[in-house]
Amino acid sequence: MKKNHHLHRQIHLCLIILLLLFCSSSQVFAAARVNVKNTRIKLSATKLTYNKKVQRPKVRVTYKGKVLKEKKNYIVKYSKGCKKVGTYTVQIIGKGTYTGTAKKQFVILPPKAQIMNIYAETAVATVAIKRQTTQTSGYQLRYATNSKLKNAKTITVKGNKNNTIFLNGLRAGTTYYMQTRTYMTVKGKKYYSKWSSTGHCTTNRETNSTHQSATPTPTPTPTSTPVPTPTPIPKADLPAHDQKENAPAKYTYEIYGLDKQKADIYTDCLKPLFIKTDNPDPNSFSLIFNGNDSRTSAYRSGSSRFFDDIPLENNDSETTSLEKVKGGYIKYVKFFEAGTYTVEFREYSLSGYTFANTVTLNVLDYD
Prior knowledge:
The chain has 3 domains: 34-109; 115-206, Immunoglobulin-like (Sandwich), CATH 2.60.40.10; 253-364, Immunoglobulin-like (Sandwich), CATH 2.60.40. The chain contains 1 helix and 27 strands. The chain has one helix at residues 2-32; strands spanning 34-35, 40-43, 47-49, 59-63, 66-67, 74-78, 86-94, 98-99, 101-109, 115-120, 125-129, 138-144, 153-158, 164-167, 175-186, 189-192, 199-202, 253-257, 265-266, 270-277, 285-289, 296-299, 304-305, 323-325, 328-335, 339-349, 352-364. The strands form 7 sheets. Strands 12, 13, 15, 16 and 17 form a 5-stranded antiparallel beta sheet that branches. Strands 18, 20, 22, 24 and 25 form a 5-stranded antiparallel beta sheet that branches. Mean pLDDT is 80; it is low at 302-306.
């Protein structure tokens, strides 16, 4: 009896020890499982810019300084699409000793805008923005008289085709700083691109005649001094601009759109054109649109321009709307009606003009 009782006690003790070992191991295993919400999750980027491609930021998960491994410790799932402008979600699902699900979000912003040109006058300015054809609902422009754009005024323009903004009520002889950006409306929410680099222009000063009061001109007192006999002015040889010659042109001429949208021209939008030529004299040739069509107008760039890779050269001539740059000239043209325009390059000499080249431009109706 004593032996059996001793045996029972030993069996009972072994069962208790096994039960304690099982409970402690279960507690240790349970303690080792970590919810991914308690880890540190970081995306490689939370704001991306639309680039016509699918974009998914990389995920980095750490726990107590240890970098976890994807597919071993967690699984990553992205929202569908991740290409167009909008908000997208990343799911991090725990695996192995890591449990639970955590979520992170990132946004894809519309393409960045760029100021192409500013044409400033006395109290108004025309700002040409590089047109974005996709994932853009419109543009914003902010401007102020300080370079930090404090208390700047903001103008919102609907429609991605309306890339020319007109500023009115400006002060004469004042420098204005400005930036632009695009926006895209998705399900009632507006997404804005980053602001462009800062451009600036200075409005023209008012002429003295606008400030002077109307003072009567004194009547000169007649004198008995005899009037001198006028000296005949020698006759100068001027170019015969209306007489066509059959001689070949001395120089070559080509035309390009600086914004790489040569065939995408709209009415009422200022269009920068690059004229590639080896002609050193801008006054010896001209561009004729449909035989001097009144539906077009040419401009200089004003007091500021934004083609940093094409520096101006000797830009002090006021006798032509062309601006000298390396390899040719820049000309700004605005079309007031849609249609097909034939551009003729005419090269002039004292005896007449010669057709140098002909280019066709297709202008679309903005409306």
